[in-house]
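Lab notebook page, bench 4
Experiment: in silico fold of construct C2
Operator: M.H.
Input chain length: 590 residues
Purpose: comparison with the prior construct
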Amino acid sequence: MSDVFISYARSTEAQARQIGEALRALGYGVWRDDELPAHRAYAEVIEERLREAKAVVVVWSTEAVKSQWVRAEADAAREAGTLVQLRVDGANPPMPFNQIQCADMNGWSGDSAHPGWRKVAESVASLIGGGAAATAASLASAPRAKPQLSICVLPFANMSGDPEQEYFSDGISEDIITDLSKVSALFVIARNTAFTFKGKAVEVPEVAGKLKVSHVLEGSVRKAGNRVRITAQLIDGATGGHVWADRYDRDLDDIFALQDEISEAIVAALKLKLLPEEKKAIETRGTDNADAYDLYLMARQHGWVGNDGDPRQNEAVIRLCDKAIEIDPAYARAWALIGTAQAKLRFRFGRGDLDGSAAIEKALALDPDLAEAHAAKARILRSEGRYDEAWEEARIALRLDPECFEANNAAASLCFSQGRIADAIPFYEKAAALMETYVNTPALLMTCYKALGDAEGATRAARMTLDRAEAVLAQDRSNGMAMGYGVGALAVLGETDRCRDWIRRALLIDPDNQTMRYDFACALGAHLGNIDGALDLLGPHLAQVTRADLEWTKVDPDMDPLRDDPRFQAMIAEAEARLATPEAAATAAR
């Protein structure tokens, strides 16, 4: 295991090598990707080394800022608390890394007295904790950087007495995290980390110590009719004492002004100066209409926890967003969500009358920097087999917002569709962490780990999948999506009796859910060795499968145990023949 992992783009390989040699001279073990073993997968080794490193030194350059891999490695290090940043050609780190100290290494040629190098060496020594004796001695007299203020926004509690209002309290929490992330002098814990504490009784000092933050914000939301009450408390992480607290009772129409007020009150309580451009960024919203905002949040939540195998889920999303854009025609996020739902209906349910492209292009015309819209476009291009164009859109989405669930999920699906299973894992991991209610991503993560022979990873993903599936089914016992993915998880976990019982009950409750039947076939064939049972379930699905889903079936590792079976081969051939007819081609093109 190496102490230091160095992340860089190819154009700065010489500088990365020099930095590595300088760190080795101080007594550290250093690893760069020029030491990859020939017998192991690239992504697997990178992930392992990244996870094991005590310090991750990210070399930002013009090329690195554009690299999805450098950004992904930097993001993993940021979450783990091992990130050390430096820049070598004047390039500034992208968001959100521009909120974290970054050493300027311009003009460095190995000089230990260079201020940028001293900052890097000091940070590495602090992270590794004891490092080399030479490092401690050389830095004993170095001035310590002033600790940066940092905050974790815990998910606000839904006090409405109605679980259906959960989407609204979550939306408020997410917006406050986003707003505070725009303040350059404040480090904000990412949403996916903050939401791991959702619904848990926590002690603030314990949270602050675990996340190494100076402050914690907690609060609650009560929404009733056209009124909303928000309470918020800013707490000192070290003492547990209140720094600031307030309660707001407002009309729902004032929700945006209220969010701005809360964010600015926190900044003031922390005695930070809000720059004019930061204030402007905080006050910039996708819509100024509270009703449109509420409808969008409701549609988004429905899309994430609804029954993914039922076309009515996407139809409901479209209806909600249609109403939102009727109220505010310039609401780009609502347009993007319409395009995503329409594309699902086209590519998964054969709705040739819907495309999704027009709505997504409308979203991009309104907001060219909307990561969700670029991610949605990537998914459409991927479903049409236009992989190079899809990757370009996915890269744009990840560059615009590395914390975007849709962007990471789109990149993961692209890798999976091209048979790059190992490359899909980091994206699925990130997507699963970003959206803790979505069952699809950990289920596909389970498939990826199983395909690579990683039993530990598959088991961990299966437990995550089952927990989420059970949470969904507690609210809706007929949710075929949750039952389908839950069966796969039970199979991986070895709970075969429970697995078969779920299948029996699910087929009685929702016999026409073809997505669920496909997932059951995966569980029986890949995990339980029941090839005949898997083919019996798969037959009706392949008899009406769309082109996009057929292409997915061809690369899905869960189908591997079936591929040599004559029945499976005949089903695939029949599906190919059906989809090759002029009628099918015309439907897909509409």
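Observations: The mean pLDDT is 84. The CA atoms of residues 375 and 407 lie 5 Å apart.
Next step: discuss at group meeting.
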